[in-house]
Amino acid sequence: MNKRIFLILFAIICIVLTMPAEAKTWYVDDDGGADFTDIQTAVNSASSGDTIYVYAGDYLGFNVNKPYITIIGEGADLVTVGPTSQIRLPDIGNATGTDLEGMKLMSDLYLSTYGPAPDCTIKNCILVNSISTAFGRYYSASNLTFEGNLVNGSGSINMYGLSSKSKILNNHFTDLSNTYSAIYFRQDANFCTFSNNVLENSTATNMLTVYNVPGCTITNNTFRNNTGVALRLYKNTVTNTTITHNIFSRNGGGIKFDSAGDNNKIYLNDFIENTAQIILLGTAPTTTIWSSPDQIPYTFNSTTYTGYMGNYWSDYTGTDNNNNGIGEDPYVVPNSLGADNYPLMQPYENYNFGGSGPVVPVAAFTASPTSGDAPLTVQFTDESTGSPTSWAWDFENDGIIDSTNQNPSFTYTSAGNYTVNLTVANAGGSDSEVKTDYIVVNEPLPEPPVADFTATPTSGDAPLTVNFTDASNGTVSSYAWDFDNDGNVDSEDENPSYTYETEGTYSVNLTVTNEDGSDSEMKTDYITVTQAGQVATNDLSISGIVNTVPASAVFARETNTVKVLNVQNTGTATLTNISIAVYASDVSSGTVPVDTTTIASLAGDAKTTVTLIDPTIRDLEGGTVTYTAVVDPDNLIAETDETNNNKSGTAKNVRYNGYKGKGIYWEGGSNITTRHTFDLQGDLLYSTQPDSAYKSVGAWGSGRTETWTASDLPVPSGSTIEEVFLYFAYNWDQTAGGYPWLNLSFNGNIIENGNLSTGNGNLYRDWSNFGAYADYEYGLCVYNVTDRFSSAGNSLVTNPYDGDNNLYGKVALYPSTLVVVYRNANETRKQIFINEECDELGLSASSYGTTLEEATTYAPFTGMAIETGKVQNATLYSFAGSAGPDEGNLLFNGNIVATGAWQGSSSTASPLVFNATNYINETGNEAGIQATTSGGMDALQQILVIEYEESAPAEPVADFTATPTSGDAPLAVNFTDTSTGSPTSWFWDFGDGANSTAQNPSHTYSAEGSYTVNLTVENAAGSDFESKSDYIEISEASGSTVTLYFDPESSSVAENESTEINLVASNFPAGFSGYNLTVAIDDPAVAEIVNIEYPSWALITQNSTLPGISIYMKTVDLEDAVKEGAADVVLATLTVSGKEKGSANLSIGVKRLEDDSGDSIEPALLTGTIEVTLLSPLPDQEYAPKDLDGDGLYEDLTGNGEFSFVDIVAYFHNMDWIEENMPVEYFDFNGNGRIDFDDVVDMFAMI
């Protein structure tokens, strides 16, 4: 391409490139005539935000060791890199945000192998021959975008564990020949996306392998004409993969399950003439979902339908009698991998879809501050909904994207009103939020000038003419120079000259003035005039080192202290007004000083140490800085040797300072932020294990057990548990990869088994980031254990992952804390703020580079306003690890309220409990945790509890609504309590003999009639009754109406127990000949169908494999047992087993339902619910209670498998405990909604 034409095109492209205002473009041409002839030199010269444009040619590999460098080739067919060299992003340092485009890469690409490289892009390149890439193996490569590339050869692309949330999009892979797999998503590369790619004509054993990775999305890809397997799901942690809208055509295998995990969703794909459509190696997963999770609206043969949709199988032989594009019979997936109950009759491309895509996000944001004087730094916070996956910020609404971070900051340097535009997007679409004149930047208020000046020369023989130069800051309207400090103004010029005729030492004074005031600068003994003929014997040098304080790093996001040791006068005479300057290699390429100072006087053969400040603010870490100090930089002092005046230090890495507050001194760092709020009658309990629970690195390899007794967390009788949080803190972590690998078991339930960063808890981390312990991580992992908590006692067992203490025992464990929030109508109102984070703090100017103010982290309590006039008490629980004794200051709302406050030790994680009643504001409350010793402390969760004055409860006033209030039987009615006065119990009488104690129950009326509904509500102040006469009107079902429903409509069952639910047809006006139905449970974690019993007339039956969550059933009434007009016909009895505590919905799907004449019946379909509860053994028993006869009442209190007098005694002894800890309806034998002595009497009567 003609270079002039391409430059024009490239200039147009640059208009829309995201870069800071000062960004520069460099040009590279191996033929010469540009800025550089090789890429590496250009990279070395570039700064963060710069773009390097590479003309056509052949180039060696290169390393990128600084963030946000864009390298664009003239075209992948014109620019070749390699093949005898490497590309390293980085080699050392930080290559965050590197963008490579438009090149043919024949060199091995090492991205994040030698340092962090998140947020990188590799786009529109060609990767050929045997190139291998490894992303995220040793350092972060998260959020990588690999897009629009052409890849072929025997190499491989490997996405390792630190490349989570990366995207491989719109690439063309061909002629791949790797022996194992051409593309890998490897262990912990979670939630990656593989979309819109073509993979064809290759001989690789596997084209794409998902290896020990959950949550990936594989969509809109074409795998065709490959001799190997298209997609391999490898190992049991490959779960929750979404595989949809892909074409698997003529491959050696479609999908291979190689000991894969559960709940992988595979739907709307084409499996066309693969040698084996589906392959199984190892153990088959328990659950694989072969159809859409929800019903999808679609158009087939010009007719619109809504239904569940499976996949297209070229070997499917079923029929489509309904002509809706869905096969009548399931496609049985080979190797016991389940069935596709909704197979497509044609490739999915022949169906037009509507409404099945992801939700389009809605953009929203806030900023702080929104006004102030220039320069104004503003922090922007994304508050968009709808799960956006990308963000584009335009801070000046000029059409240029200034940031793609989710929560960026931006500095406005000029006054004005600025409109801000945020565009967010995901796979469903995009949305923009524009806030007009949102940021208001004012001109700084006028100030008096600040006087300063220089002179040259400052010494010499008389007569000596000296040129003075004004260096004042601010606007100056007049000057007054006094060259000998005798009180007389010698000049009013801005930059005068003056001749000293007489030998001596002279002080110079400059006064500058404007309309806002004046200022003077006096330099004592500044000019030295000697007698003519004297010989200079002076010599200045730097005999010590030039170093930062502390010595191991240059810190980002702040100024840096530079110490110059041993500035020496080796002459005999005393020298005065000695200037010394320090230069930074990343500021004007080290040519302009970042700070200067003056040594007033230095005697002969004396030395001194000078401290200077580099004011440069480096927003991001990464790269290096070398400081050079120069004494007498302008050679104003005559010396015998002018060549020994400078000294350079060693290169220092630019780092964030981990001993300072994360919210200020880390890019993307967070304060200790409010994560949970509660406003309730009740309270909060906590219990932290003693310091003996602390385990140092490797000393707990055989496991640590922590126990809490009932007395540690005494939940009052009659309380309802709201939430229970387990706070698991650690320190000194040296596990490879940067995250602990642990097995945590709470009350016998595994809550973590593997890498904490990808597990079930919310993980917060911090580390010093420089010095000898730069990568020794501190962390806090928070687990919600509400469903596993027992008021009778709790335990937490911690073991290294896989029992391997050598690999996974490299972490020290703080004592753990349990926090319980409960509701109790007998207690005062509380507002509870729970903030979470982990922030390592240490105070030492020399060792940590921190001041008191910097070694402070903040905990703003947000989300609720406080009614300060009604507050009775306010208590702050400030948890910190390794805090004490007599360590740390506590701040509250800007005041230091406690000094030497924490009284723990290096082995504790206990709280400081502080009465904050006198410091509370309505909003904007903020605690500060401030380190006071170099030993350091670890700020953890912060909890603020506001207690209000007790007020007399009001009696409740009963009221309710229902919908619908009329209809044909059977009619499901939803009742809604609208009572006022905070009732604590409800008793419903539905008028047909049924009742409920739920607050908002549903009930199905099965018979014609008018029903009066009564609701009784109660609290501590009294009760009230509301009756609505003839409120529900039920009509007899018309002869043509058939309803399928569950009986009972709502069921409950304990964990690992089962219950029976009937599937019933209300009536068959024209008789019945057979059905093909599907029953589904929408949450596979809660319950599953384990058995089906058909009625006696069902002589031929067929159903899918049990157990399952979506079961199809077929039968026929051969003997015409179900006659015309039959009512309440039981079609099947399902046995449902509870798996874990929770609630799930049951639904009915109809493929065929026919009357005696063979005509289709179009029934109404009602849903049902199954509630699974967690039962614990009674305090004096070994086993949990059991329901022996399936009636919903658990009469076997001892759990020994029989009902006897022993169970009555156990009930009697534990009545209060059962009422507080068990579902009352399981033990309410007299049906009055509570636990009482009459239940004991009824149990005895049962015997």
UniProtKB/TrEMBL annotation:
Lineage: Archaea, Methanobacteriati, Methanobacteriota, Stenosarchaea group, Methanomicrobia
Protein name listed in UniProt: Probable pectate lyase C
GO cellular component, one term: extracellular space
Domain EF-hand: start-end pairs: 1227-1247
Pfam family, one: PKD_4
CDD domains, sorted: PKD
Domain called PKD: residue spans: 361-440, 449-534, 956-1039
Record-level Gene Ontology MF annotations: calcium ion binding; metallocarboxypeptidase activity
GO biological process: peptide metabolic process; protein processing
